[in-house]
Structure formats: C-alpha cells, structure tokens
Amino acid sequence: MGTGKPRPARVGSNAGRRSLGVALSLGVIGAVACRGHDGGTAGGGEDGVSATTGDGDGRGDQPGDGGGDRATTPGGWRDASYSGPEGSRSYRLYVPATTGTPAARPLVLLLHGCSQTAADVAAATRIDELAERRQLLVVAPTQPSTANPQGCWSWYVPENQGRAGEAALLAAIAAHVAATEAIDAGRVYVAGFSAGGAMAAILASCYVDRFAAAAIHSGLMFEAATDAMSAFAAMGSGTTRDPAVAAADAAECAGTSAGVVPVLVIHGRADTVVDVANADATVAESLAVADRADDGADNGSVSRTPATTTSFTAAGGLSYEVARYGAARAVERVLVTGLGHAWSGGPAGGSYTDPNGPDATSMVWDFFAAHAR
Known about the structure:
Elements: E1 54-55, E2 72-73, E3 76-84, E4 87-95, E5 98-99, E6 105-111, H1 118-125, H2 127-134, E7 137-141, H3 165-180, E8 183-193, H4 195-206, E9 213-217, H5 228-237, H6 243-254, E10 263-268, H7 277-295, E11 308-313, E12 319-325, E13 331-336, E14 343-344, E15 353-354, H8 360-369
Parallel strand pairs: 6-7, 6-8, 8-9, 9-10, 10-13, 14-15
Antiparallel strand pairs: 1-3, 2-5, 3-4, 4-7, 11-12, 12-13
Helix pairs in contact: 6-7
C-alpha cells in the first residue's frame, strides 16, 4: 500500500473516487474528508494552551469579551483555545447577534473531517447562518497535524473510543463553552462530517449525560474499527463489527447515565470514501442502544423497521429518502442518491460540499430542535 497523500476528492460528481493506494500509517486515515476544490487551508491552526480569546472576524466586541456598549452586539466568530487535564485544542466559537442579556441558548459542537479545519467545516455547512436564524452557539475545534498527520479526529484508536482521549477532550471543550457562555445545558448537541461524524458517534455513545442529540454525516458507527487497517477496511466496504456488540459496549461506556442520545444519520449513496453500508451499521447500532436503554436488554423492544419512510427531491435535483425509527424520532436516516463524500447542500466549491443535495444543515437543526435532555 502506498504512502503518498491521497488526491483530494472532486465534489459534485461522485465525490471521492476511491484511492486504494492512499497513505495509511499509524494515525493516518488519509481518505476521509480531504480538501475540497481549491486545496487551500482556511483558518484554524495548531493547538495551544492560551486562554486568550480573540475576535476572528474583526467585528470588535463580542459577547463575553468585556468592555463596550453591548446593548446590541453583532454576531461573529471568535478564535480561542482550551487547555485542561484532557489536553489542549484551538477552537472557533460562533456567538449570534445579541441584544441585552441573552437567554440560555443551544450549543452545537461541530467536528470537521480529515485535512479540514474548523473554518473549513463551518464554511461548508454555513452553520453561522443557521446560528443567526435559530439563535444558537457553535463551537468548532480543530485537530492539528501534531495530533494526527492528516488532521483527522482519531476515531479508530481504542483510547479515543470511550470517556478518555480525544473524546474526553471534545466533551470538555463543549462543557467549557457551556460553562462560560449562556447555554441551555439540556440543549447541547454534536454534529460531525466523516472522521468528525465517527467521533460524534463515540460522543453519542459514551456521553449520554452531555449531549441531547447527535448528527453523523458520512461517518461511521461507534467502534467501527480499532486500528488504521480496520478503519480503512470499514470505510471501503462497511464495518465487520456487530452493531449489537458495539451497542453493548456503548451501554458500558455510558455507565450509570440514563437515557439514550437520539441519532441522525446522513449519507450519500454514491460515497466512495466512506461506503454507504456504514450508514446502515450506524442505524443498527443506534437502535440497539435505544433497545437496551428502555428495559436494560437488547430484546427487540425497539423496532428495527422504520415507522415512516418518505422520498423527496432536493431543489438541486438529487433525490433522497428519509426513514424515521422508534418513538419521538429516536433514530433518523437520510440517504441521498447521487451524493458522494460531501456535505449535502453545502455551497459550490466548498471543502467537500455538494450544492445539489438537500440542505443537511437545516435537517440537522430540525432534528436537534426535536430533542432536549
């Protein structure tokens, strides 16, 4: 197997033509969510331990910056960093326009894919526009190359598949923002793309006490792989891990925390980087988790058959199917025909985006808005 960096996927035409000769060394899954059209690096940076928070967009005072007349404060991104016993990472925080003293608002932890930064995934999802419309905050950490050569969240490393490692660090960043901003603790959510989606699955499995819902776009289920080689295999043709076994491990990981994190799965049927079989595996694992949560046993008490299945056509022309499982939308799956490895409905020319699909960002928020802890 080769050791060169993979060719960036072309988006909008069966994105992510599989490159079987991609770099695959310890801690490198280069095929996941690489750079989009321009190949440039937008924003982000290496991690640090500074507690300093700066205005990333030059708009002046932002909520919590101190000083100034804040009768009406414009929305914008702020660059900051977190350092604690779990580790250190830089992150971007979007705070929407605020008038007077803000009420407690929702928070979304947004996780990028490989070779992306916080700025890349923010632009690909246009999450700031959603944040303004729905009055929510967004925290988007960046994985530096010092932690993973391709900038991937290392979802396939066993140390990170629990309440430790990178999972603990990401949960701590969300908790830090929730403690320092006006956040509704019952409406903290996690969403991720590709490697970020796989990390979102870990957080949804192990941090039932922290997150009210999760969205996994083009990602993989909890414990889909346990090393680089098995990760590459899972991406290519689906995980060989039994979803029921992964669900049992998720219950153990969550510990005494009661309940279950509702999960939205979005995936392109034409994804040649992370095979669509992973969407079905994530749904199966999520349903098994919900089954265990209601009575302590995986005994079929939660149906594996969708309660509803509906087909639509996006304004951009791609058709998609929405399947809802269980009571109160416990699990939802969106499969988009013709969508490759790309954020559905993202802007043309973005980092792994396809504007012809349905608006995934709006679907994510619609799902999140239906759930609170």
